[in-house]
């Protein structure tokens, strides 16, 4: 009996040790991870990155980051003189057997030429995204001030800040928060909001069921959403914006080439800088030009269309809504 008790005690001690320290080997990299077990939805909590890699790169590297379920964060850090990639793994409770096993995923963090690749792929073909969501892979990447970003996640938020280059940023479900980028920016989301703050260059953003908010952007800006609103503030440049069932609000610091705003069932509210002349062509259900009064304005308002010439005219402004109202004002400065 004493012998059985000792054997049982030794077995429990060995089992506790195995649960406390888990040795993992992924893609040939051995790593020891301390695991904290609790009764909540999060079964594994890591204080340190699951994988951490640093790469020396040349001028204007390309950064490709792709994950199935999880967030992506890319920020400028010129002080490190390279690219730092940190991968964090969060495993959640699942009733599906084996879905939390990291052997089901292919993790790649490597450099090819002047391109850094950080990717997570599901090895199981034909498996639903529901099972992949039981494990979240979040990348945090630090890059030089000049780099081109190619960022994609199926289910997660993407944050990018302070990089100059050609950027393509896309997700399926989650918000896109893009700040202080320069160059060409293309941001696409299916079910999320898009924030574009202090961008400079050619900017294109599209979402199906989210809002688009652009602030302090400079350059040519093209925005499109189906069921959301569009709001731009302190814009400098050219704006082309369209929504199917949302409203559009826009104000400018400066208009360069022109303005084109369109909504099917929403309202349009436009505030122009008092710096130049404009030729406004508007089509809508109702018009509000009450703030445009004086000798500088020539207005002609019909049943469903209106034209306004401000000062000597010049910059084209096209506004169109099928079932909404149109309001145009000028800044008082």
Into which percentage range does the β-strand content fall? over 45%
The percent of residues in helical segments reads: under 10%
Q: Give Rg in angstroms.
A: 27 Å
- What is the terminal-to-terminal distance? 93 Å
Based on secondary structure, the structural category is mainly beta
Shape: elongated
Q: Main beta sheet: strand number and arrangement?
A: 26 strands, mixed
Runs with pLDDT <50, length 5+? Answer: 1-45, 126-131
The overall average pLDDT, rounded, is: 85
Order of helices and strands: HEEEEEEEEEHEEEEEEEEEEEEEEEEEEE
Number of strands: 28
Number of helices: 2
Question: Can you give a write-up of this model?
Answer:
By secondary structure, the chain is mostly beta strands. Helices cover 7% and strands 59% of the residues. It has two helices and 28 strands. It has helices at 2-20, 129-132, and strands spanning 21-26, 29-34, 42-44, 51-55, 62-69, 72-76, 83-92, 105-112, 115-122, 135-143, 148-155, 158-161, 164-173, 176-179, 182-191, 194-197, 200-207, 212-215, 218-225, 230-243, 248-263, 268-272, 278-283, 286-288, 297-301, 305-310, 315-321, 325-330. The strands form two sheets. The chain has a 26-stranded mixed beta sheet that branches.
Short description:
With 333 residues, this protein is mainly beta. Among the domains are: 35 residues, no CATH class; 141 residues, no CATH class. The chain contains 2 helices and 28 strands.
Give the key terms.
333 residues, mainly beta, 26-stranded mixed beta sheet, 28 strands, 7% helix
Secondary structure elements and pairings:
Blueprint (H helix, E strand, L loop, with lengths): L1 H19 E6 L2 E6 L7 E3 L6 E5 L6 E8 L2 E5 L6 E10 L12 E8 L2 E8 L6 H4 L2 E9 L4 E8 L2 E4 L2 E10 L2 E4 L2 E10 L2 E4 L2 E8 L4 E4 L2 E8 L4 E14 L4 E16 L4 E5 L5 E6 L2 E3 L8 E5 L3 E6 L4 E7 L3 E6 L3
Parallel strand pairs: 5-9, 5-11, 6-10, 6-12, 11-13, 12-14, 13-15, 14-16, 15-17, 16-18, 17-19, 18-20, 19-20, 20-21, 21-22, 21-27, 22-28, 23-27, 24-28
Antiparallel strand pairs: 1-2, 3-7, 4-7, 7-10, 8-9, 23-26, 25-26
């Amino acid at each position: 009996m004493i012998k059985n008790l000792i054997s049982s005690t030794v077995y429990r001690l060995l089992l506790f040790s195995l649960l406390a320290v888990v040795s993992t080997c992924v893609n040939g990299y051995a790593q020891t991870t301390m695991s904290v077990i609790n009764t909540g939805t999060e079964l594994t909590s890591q204080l340190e990155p699951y994988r951490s890699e640093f790469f020396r790169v040349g001028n204007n590297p390309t950064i490709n980051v792709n994950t199935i379920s999880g967030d992506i964060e890319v920020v400028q850090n010129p002080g490190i003189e390279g690219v730092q990639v940190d991968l964090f793994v969060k495993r959640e409770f699942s009733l599906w057997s084996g879905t939390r096993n990291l052997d089901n995923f292919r993790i790649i963090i490597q450099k090819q030429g002047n391109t850094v690749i950080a990717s997570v792929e599901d090895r199981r073909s034909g498996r639903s995204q529901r099972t992949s969501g039981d494990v979240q892979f979040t990348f945090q990447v630090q890059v030089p001030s000049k780099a081109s970003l190619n960022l994609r996640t199926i289910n997660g938020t993407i944050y990018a800040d302070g990089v100059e280059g050609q950027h393509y940023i896309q997700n399926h479900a989650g918000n896109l928060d893009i700040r202080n980028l320069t160059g060409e920016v293309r941001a696409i989301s299916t079910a999320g909001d898009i924030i574009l703050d202090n961008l400079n260059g050619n900017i294109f953003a599209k979402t199906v069921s989210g809002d688009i908010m652009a602030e302090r952007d400079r350059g040519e800006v093209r925005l499109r959403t189906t069921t959301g609103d569009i709001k731009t503030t302190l814009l400098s440049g050219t704006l082309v914006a369209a929504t199917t069932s949302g409203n559009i609000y826009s104000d400018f610091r400066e208009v360069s080439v022109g303005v084109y705003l369109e909504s099917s069932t929403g309202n349009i509210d436009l505030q122009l800088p008092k710096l130049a002349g404009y030729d406004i062509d508007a089509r809508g259900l109702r018009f509000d030009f009450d703030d445009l009064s004086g000798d500088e304005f020539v207005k002609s308002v019909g049943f469903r269309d209106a034209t306004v010439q401000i000062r000597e005219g010049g910059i084209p402004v096209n506004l169109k809504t099928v079932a909404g109202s149109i309001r145009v004002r000028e800044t008082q400065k």
